[in-house]
Design a protein that fits this description.
By secondary structure, this protein is mostly helical. It has three domains: 49 residues, no CATH class; 97 residues, no CATH class; 70 residues, no CATH class. It is built from ten helices and three strands. It has a three-stranded parallel sheet. Helix 7 crosses helix 9 and helix 9 packs antiparallel against helix 10. It is globular, with a radius of gyration of 20 Å.
Length: 258
Amino acid sequence: MRRSICCAKSRTRWSRVVPERFVNLGEYYRFCAVLNLQPLRDPMPPARLKQIPEWMSSELIITEHARVRLKRWLAAGSPDADPAHVVYGGDHDVRVEVVHVLSRVPPPVLVHILTTTLVIGVGETDGGWWDVAPAPLPQPTSEPLCIIALAWPTYIQDRTDAIEELRGIAAHEMAHGWLCKPRRPSVPTEYAAEKLEHETYIELASKVGSIEEVIAPGVTNEQQAAQLATVWGFRGAGTDHTHQMRAARRRVLDRIKE
């Protein structure tokens, strides 16, 4: 049975960034299939825009893991949530911007982050901090507990620009949380062995000339997260595709130099 999606709550805080993205007819039918909506018989562009939620985009469902999470959200009744309920530990100023970012991401991403992710922030003048760990996440899911770590961008002097940068980085990391494959949590006693195995794999790939195959998945992940954060309307390094792809390459190549 096809269904409709009520977006009344989310419309108050979500505005379409690129209205033209829904003009493509093939994309419209794909969105209907993913959202379990009945396509219109003769969908003209205005009708498509009205039927498809404003937050829907190709970038949001570019990975199979994202599509699974979206379907899980739909099956739960398309709930919305309060961004202020983020599970957070750390600097207050960083938390303010995290809540702001969460108020701008699509409802399924918001619910996913609130129920799977602990966000940690280090502030503008902090070198570190100690506190009691936040309470457990509000509801169990089939996903492991994930962590997003954010640091105030002290390399930017202007505070307004620094806030914009921090928001873009936070959105980028939330996009990773939505798009990426959930990995099995590492057991502390196994971490060293897993790290050594990965480093050995990178070294061998370098020797046989297939390092680009090792780099490619990370580059793709960074590009997809940057694109999704851009669609959500953020700016800065978190949405800079070139910067993120270069950083992904550098992380792998630096391990070879070590």
